[in-house]
């Protein structure tokens, strides 16, 4: 009986083995130097503390959501001082994620038309996401009542996005009664480039989207149609899906934005740690100009690690829609939304205070 011969010559097998070993070493070295560069290059170039707005005190002594304070004519509006400590990676952390309505060539200072409060608890391996409508009429510390999406602009006086982020965090904490530890600001380009760097995302579209007046990047129109069912989106289409609202309303848009966030998490989890490390340099280069955050790289790695350990069924997400808000017309005729505290308090307790 003839003995079986090796499929590949011995010298070729040896060379392939050597190449495999060296490629593995190269990936590790590449990842090391990539993270070294990232550690020495903060995402927030201003390098200022979140506590950039003076005279603001968030130590309200609350164990849960409170009633929205009533603005008394002739009396000063509340001013606050942040008290949140940097996240060490073990306790629950609440992060305000804000999408900047900024087109190419425009300044970073703009309205935060997307606001989500994201909470992650490593101890219980659970997470929560709450979308806050941009037209929510709230007390902005030091500025009186206005739409919540203007807080960032108010605080960014003097071209200071750190101050804007701080005031937005304080406004959310003051009106919803939820401590906010950190912030992430993201513009259109970061969403597009980041999702492209991941290879796109898969999203199940429940109802076909037909938006003939979808806005383009030059304040014109770019008619949009997305069929119902499972769709694979590149970055540009994912952004369109997250921004379109003319077919329904801002609440529908908020739900779609949460879909995109969860789809990005799912794609990142599917790549695994090795895949993410291999793409770390590309991802950073693609999104660095469109993101501002007070999270350090170490904290972001901890967040990513903790998020990947959470099962999908342990992520709760909701929207402050008409179950929790009501329409209101201001004295100047502006149409806004008012938080119904008794209803919202139950939801906020479940999302951000339950063990």
Protein described:
With 355 residues, this protein is α+β, with helices and mostly antiparallel strands. It has a single domain, classed as LCP protein (Aminopeptidase, 3-Layer(aba) Sandwich). The protein has 9 helices and 14 strands. The protein has helices at 10-39, 151-155, 161-176, 188-197, 235-243, 250-278, 280-287, 297-308, 341-352; strands spanning 93-100, 112-121, 126-131, 137-140, 144-147, 182-186, 201-205, 209-211, 224-226, 229-233, 291-293, 315-319, 325-329, 335-339. The chain has a 6-stranded mixed sheet, sandwiched between helices. β4 and β5 form a beta hairpin. α4 (188-197) crosses α5 (235-243), α4 (188-197) packs antiparallel against α7 and α5 (235-243) packs antiparallel against α6. The longest helix has 30 residues, at 10-39. The protein is globular. The N and C termini lie far apart (69 Å).
Question: What order do the helices and strands come in, and which of them pair?
Answer:
Layout: H1 10-39, E1 93-100, E2 112-121, E3 126-131, E4 137-140, E5 144-147, H2 151-155, H3 161-176, E6 182-186, H4 188-197, E7 201-205, E8 209-211, E9 224-226, E10 229-233, H5 235-243, H6 250-278, H7 280-287, E11 291-293, H8 297-308, E12 315-319, E13 325-329, E14 335-339, H9 341-352
Parallel strand pairs: 1-6, 3-12
Antiparallel strand pairs: 1-2, 2-3, 4-5, 6-11, 7-10, 8-9, 13-14
Helix pairs in contact: 4-5, 4-7, 5-6
- Total strand count, please? 14
Largest sheet, described in full? 6 strands, mixed
CATH architecture: 3-Layer(aba) Sandwich
Mean pLDDT: 75
Number of domains: 1
Please report which band the strand proportion falls in: under 5%, 5-15%, 15-25%, 25-35%, 35-45% or over 45%. Answer: 15-25%
CATH homology-level superfamily: LCP protein
Tally of separate helices: 9
- Do you know the CATH topology? Aminopeptidase
Overall 3D geometry?
globular
Which stretches are poorly predicted, pLDDT < 50 over at least 5 residues? 1-83
Structural class: alpha+beta
CATH class: Alpha Beta
Secondary structure: helix percent: 25-40%
The largest sheet has its strands arranged as 11-6-1-2-3-12
